[in-house]
Amino acid sequence: MDFSWLAKYTPLLLSGAWQTVALLGISVSIGFVLAIGLALAQVSGPLWLRLLARGYCGFFRGTPLLIQLWLLYYGVGSLLPMVPGLRSSFLWPILREGFFFAAVSFTLNHAAYQAEILRGALLSVPKGELEAGRAFGMTPFLLLRRIWLPRAIRTALPSITGEIVLQLKATPLAFTVTVMDLYAVAYKVRQDTLLVYEPLIVVTLFYVGLTIILTRIFKHVEAQVPVRR
């Protein structure tokens, strides 16, 4: 095993690790907000909205993430330069980067999976608790904010944690659209040094370590907000 290359490539590895963490953070945080809306639409929305939300979740859960990423990057991305004035706008430095398309794709995909988890959790909240809130005169929004959504999130927390870990393991796909994440850096190291296993071992240790950290954080959260039976 030869790890003599580590010193030379450490800055690039740190930059790649930051790209990976940024992709995870953006997709998980924004995706979770979208998932709440999608779950509520399926549980309590009008028929047309329920159908739209189910169609969204069915599409993104039923197609590979890699295909979704390529459709955005090679499909939508190839059309953006044709939009008048876009190339000269302040948005172009963001829209021309593969990171933008990877973040959007990961976010939309993550939202679909989390929405299904939250939908089941919302339906599992005892009706008696909701009726008690209404009896106290709570408005629908207050009932959602104080009882329904917190109760559902507490119930779904273990599954939410699992989906976040799966999302972390999906981030290397960003390499396919020119994002210099940690896996892309390992690929460059392999090209430069002809070493195969050592860069992959470094990447593996990073993902294992980050998974352990995330799991412990969410276990601590679960312990602080136990689900009432």
Automatic annotation (TrEMBL):
It is a multi-pass membrane protein. It is found in: Cell inner membrane; Cell membrane. Gene3D superfamilies: MetI-like. GO terms for cellular component: ATP-binding cassette (ABC) transporter complex. Pfam families: BPD_transp_1 (PF00528). InterPro entries: AA_ABC_transptr_permease_3TM, ArtM/GltK/GlnP/TcyL/YhdX-like, MetI-like, MetI-like_sf. Its main location: membrane. Keywords: Cell inner membrane, Cell membrane, Membrane, Transmembrane, Transmembrane helix, Transport. Residues 17-218 form the ABC transmembrane type-1 domain. NCBIfam families: HEQRo_perm_3TM. This is Nickel permease. It comes from Pannonibacter phragmitetus.
